[in-house]
Amino acid sequence: MLKYIKRLTQNKFVRNVAIVATGTAGAQAIAMAFSPVITRIYSPDTFGAMGTFIAIFDIISPLAALSYPLAMVLPKHDSEAIGLAKISLWIALLTSIAITLALYFFKAPIIHTFNLQSIEPYILLLPITMFFSVLVAITGQWTIRKKLFNLKAKSTIIQSLIINMMKSGLGLISPSAIILIGTTSFGYLLQAGLTWAGIRIKNKKEPKKIQSNIRFKDLLRQYRDFAIFRSPQILLNSVGQSLPILMLANLFTPASVGFYVLARTVLFVPSNLIGASVAEVFYPKFVETLHQGKSGREILIKACASLAAVGCIPYLIIIAFGPWLFSLIFGDEWREAGEYSRWMSAWLFVVLTTRPIIAAIPALSLQGLFLVFEVIAVAIRIVAILLGYFWFDSALGAIMAFSLSNVIIYSALTALIISKA
Question: Cβ(396)–Cβ(340) under 8 Å?
């Protein structure tokens, strides 16, 4: 057993995962430490405005650079990756300007149609935040490409510390929505700046001359499947993830939405902490395997199996003791969220295990197939929630049906991608 543990700790892949996970865990720990302070400074209405802003941002952000930054890991030569970064910046600039003009000239009808009165004074920050998020995506994908996982972890922790200090300090002066939204927007710029500074220092230590005559038009054509297929897929996925909140709010009570949001926030921690870390390290390794002309099936299965072995522990605990744990930690009024979490655990366990599957899709050039799959998945989720509503006539029944539909969806996706690998 000790020999196995020693071999595991010496494994480069495992060490890289641990580094990324440490950065994510550190950032989350800092945010959790500041939460009791921040929630006492800002009112629920202020948090609601920020939540609305982030929800709209999450839906429109896939359009920012048409997902071209995700392609930066794929080229064999750094010159092509740099070309993709420049393309991403130009697209982000154009889309940000276009959205700014649309919001400026059609602000009133947009606010009225989508009921966005709570963020009306800050709505022009959306395109600015979009552009900053592209900077994060570009610098982040470069660190993944160059396997600078230690740099990524450090910048994530430092950014979390600075932003939460700003929210607390500025909130004491003016506890308003503009502070929360403004610091959230600035957080993307800060993250990109910290990562870029680290990349520059790294490049000075290891100077390399990168020359290329490749044209932007060739790169746009070569990786056009990211714009044509991946961007709509991410957009559909964002809408799909918001479905329970939107439909629970319309079919049931606001309390049911609160139960769902709390349960999802807690249950996504293992997926964000472990799954995202594994996916970021797995992606360049998988691409390298394909570049060597080898089959990616074996490494894909191993990555999914490893996540399943690790993830089963926290989710089994929630399934067994969810209502009791939620009642103990959050109060008796949140016991219903624990009931939700029991059913949602099966869904989010499958989400965790499929992180490498999602990461492998661009490398396997299956963007079009994934888009079709996402369209079908959104339709299935809508039907599942409605069936749960009409069959059980309860919010818990709708969550049960939605969760089981996601188990089927992600299991089918896993089988499909492994067969194509």
Answer: yes
- Using left for φ > 0, alpha for ψ between -120 and 50, and beta otherwise, residue 388 falls in alpha
Average pLDDT score over the chain = 79
Q: Which two tokens stand for residue 273?
A: 């902490």
Predicted confidence at residue 31, as pLDDT, reads 73
DSSP secondary structure code for residue 66 in this structure: T
Q: Which helix (H) or strand (E) holds 306?
A: helix 297-330
Tokens of 413: 């996706």
Phi-psi region of 212 (alpha: psi -120 to 50; beta: other; left: phi over 0): beta
Lowest average pLDDT, out of 24-28, 307-311, 379-383, goes to 24-28
Query: What pLDDT band is residue 2 in, cutting at 50, 70 and 90?
Result: very low
Provide the CA 284 distance to its chain's centre, in angstroms: 18
What's residue 1's pLDDT? 47
Tokens of 391: 């069959």
Residue 183, number of CB atoms within 10 A of its CB:
21
Which residue, chain included where needed, has tokens 């197939």?
369
* Residues contacting 294, CB < 8 A, separation 6+: none
